Amino acid sequence: MSDEPFSLDQLYRAIEQHLASNLPGIKAVTAWPNIKDRIALPVVFMEMAEIEPGKDIGTGETTLVCRFEARIIVDPIKPQHCQQAAHLAAQLAVLLRMQTWGVAVEPAEFVQAMQDWTKPELDGYAVWLVEWTHQLYLGVEEWPWSDEPSDAPPGGDYPIELEFTPEDSP
Question: What's the CATH number for 8-141?
Fold first, then answer.
């Protein structure tokens, strides 16, 4: 884990780096791409598609369940392009298992993988969509009680003192 405070940018970078190094043959992995640019194929485009509230864990942070989408785009002129796109989607689904990308998020939960025709700018390409969610925590963790007293021992451990009298015994 990094000492850098958690941010969505940090999560995007971690996912991009991991996918780029673990999906063989992929030319690039990029979040929020400018699709008008010329790109080498196959490529993975990634974006956050939805944010829902998560279960409050009582730390003062905002808990969110974020749904991510990765589009695997393959050149339709290449032989077996449909098979290549489906194979890469399956590999990505395997990579998602228990994946935190080395940052402070709950493990990925695979949602689905399927062929995708939802982006008109990608018409003419073989495209598979892989979806997953992460629960994550944004904001400052809050401690609802006053700070520890200045006489607190190192580590904040306080000894517990108990007193028993003969009347307390059974």
Answer: 3.30.2000.10
